[in-house]
């Protein structure tokens, strides 16, 4: 009989779901939970036909240099900036991601982070826990309203549209900027108006970042962009840390040129800059926007289906439902 394809499961993920891989493949499981140095990833990918990975596994030309058999990588995330797409595409490796299944959970969290940041919820709780609530004060911990304000959304994909729909329920005016303008029906469904980048920055009372991280979006929110924003504005990032120039953001927050920031992602995560930790006017969460049990399970299930199909097995053999680079393949 033909030898079964070998796949690498980079970390333990819902064993009852990933067990489905064993029906088709010889599965190599790595029990280590933390980040792999590049040499270790390269070692794991040798003699492997496919891999199921998370954003902690950075894979590029160096990691796949000795991976002659590698044909497919299923990323358990909608973003895939951990993967060097041109290098993988050139090597004939099909990459898949997990869109759609995390849209609503991530949009919920974006909204929660926006509200917590604008209304200073974690700052207020810290203050209370410190035992400082001695008497009532009329002007204590005043925050920014959502209702009647303007929400700017940078990146109007599935998650951005989910945020826009929620904003309607809070009586916010929604402006967006995106690589391309959305069809008129989509715009009116989420009651969002397209504006240029500079106008978005200038108009937003709250700015939500929901765009993919690429060479083009690296540091789009830099000192110059921050200078165009209202000093009373709130910035929320649920996309990727590298979209924001963190030292420039810290400087703006520390010197009253931006009111507050809610961050779920960081340039050097899991490391968080101590200057951020020292700021009063930030809400900081550890990259959990998609973290609900149902959504995390759906992400893993989709990645498993993608890998099975990408390696030519199962009911959708050869046609994974969420390919990223199919059609760009040279071999
Ligand atoms: C994941 C994410 O939790 O989907 C994404 O792009 O950032 C998160 O949903 C994370 O990437 C896990 O790999």
From TrEMBL:
<keyword id="KW-0520">NAD</keyword>
<dbReference type="Pfam" id="PF02826">
    <property type="entry name" value="2-Hacid_dh_C"/>
</dbReference>
<dbReference type="InterPro" id="IPR006139">
    <property type="entry name" value="D-isomer_2_OHA_DH_cat_dom"/>
</dbReference>
<keyword id="KW-0560">Oxidoreductase</keyword>
<dbReference type="InterPro" id="IPR029752">
    <property type="entry name" value="D-isomer_DH_CS1"/>
</dbReference>
<comment type="similarity">
    <text>Belongs to the D-isomer specific 2-hydroxyacid dehydrogenase family.</text>
</comment>
<dbReference type="InterPro" id="IPR036291">
    <property type="entry name" value="NAD(P)-bd_dom_sf"/>
</dbReference>
<feature type="domain" description="D-isomer specific 2-hydroxyacid dehydrogenase catalytic">
    <location>
        <begin position="31"/>
        <end position="312"/>
    </location>
</feature>
<dbReference type="GO" id="GO:0016491">
    <property type="term" value="F:oxidoreductase activity"/>
</dbReference>
<dbReference type="InterPro" id="IPR006140">
    <property type="entry name" value="D-isomer_DH_NAD-bd"/>
</dbReference>
<dbReference type="Pfam" id="PF00389">
    <property type="entry name" value="2-Hacid_dh"/>
</dbReference>
<feature type="domain" description="D-isomer specific 2-hydroxyacid dehydrogenase NAD-binding">
    <location>
        <begin position="111"/>
        <end position="289"/>
    </location>
</feature>
<dbReference type="InterPro" id="IPR050223">
    <property type="entry name" value="D-isomer_2-hydroxyacid_DH"/>
</dbReference>
<protein>
    <submittedName>
        <fullName>2-hydroxyacid dehydrogenase</fullName>
        <ecNumber>1.1.1.-</ecNumber>
    </submittedName>
</protein>
């Amino acid at each position: 009989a033909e030898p079964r394809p070998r796949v690498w499961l980079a970390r333990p993920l819902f064993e009852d779901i990933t067990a489905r891989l064993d029906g088709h493949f010889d599965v190599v499981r790595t029990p280590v939970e933390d980040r792999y140095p590049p040499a270790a990833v390269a070692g794991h990918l040798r003699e492997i036909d496919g891999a199921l990975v998370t954003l902690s596994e950075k894979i590029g030309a160096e990691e796949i240099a000795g991976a002659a058999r590698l044909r497919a990588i299923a990323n358990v995330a909608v973003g895939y900036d951990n993967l060097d797409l041109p290098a993988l595409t050139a090597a004939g490796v099909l990459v898949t991601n997990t869109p759609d299944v995390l849209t609503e959970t991530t949009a919920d969290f974006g909204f929660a982070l926006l509200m917590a940041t604008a209304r200073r919820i974690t700052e207020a709780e810290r203050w209370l826990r410190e035992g400082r609530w001695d008497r009532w004060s009329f002007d204590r911990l005043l925050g920014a309203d959502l209702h009647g304000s303007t929400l700017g959304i940078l990146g109007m994909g599935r998650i951005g549209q989910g945020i826009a729909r929620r904003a309607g329920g809070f009586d916010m005016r929604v402006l967006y900027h995106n690589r391309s303008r959305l069809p008129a029906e989509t715009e009116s469904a989420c009651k969002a108006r397209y504006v240029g980048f500079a106008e978005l920055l200038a108009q937003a009372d709250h700015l939500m970042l929901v765009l993919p991280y690429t060479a083009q979006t690296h540091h789009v929110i830099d000192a110059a962009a921050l200078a165009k924003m209202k000093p009373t504005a709130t910035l929320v990032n649920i996309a990727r840390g590298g979209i924001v120039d963190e030292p420039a953001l810290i400087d703006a927050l520390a010197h009253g040129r931006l009111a507050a920031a809610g961050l779920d992602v960081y340039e050097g995560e899991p490391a968080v800059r101590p200057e951020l930790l020292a700021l009063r006017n930030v809400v900081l969460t550890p990259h959990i926007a998609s973290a609900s049990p149902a959504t995390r399970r759906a992400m893993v299930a989709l990645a498993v289906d993608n890998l099975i199909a990408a390696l030519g097995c199962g009911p959708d053999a050869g046609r994974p439902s969420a390919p990223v680079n199919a059609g760009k393949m040279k071999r």
